[in-house]
Amino acid sequence: MKRRKFSKEEKIKILDEARENGVQPTLDKYAIYPATYYNWKKKFESMGEAGFRHGMTPAHLKEIRRLEKEN
User: Fold this and answer.
1) Measured distance CA(20)–CA(17) in Å, rounded
2) pTM beyond 0.85
């Protein structure tokens, strides 16, 4: 099975739709696993849109901000 990739905008749209219409119907509509949805939700709640960038963790984001202030 080919792996699908969702853009940042699509992920945010799916999170909003799940909030409005319920999680399970939204997951069924887009054929997304619950673990994927909750992972997206956790990243979005902790770091906002920056959480959807590849490889961004809270610790990594904090280090980047520290280095930006240093410069």
Assistant:
1) 5
2) no
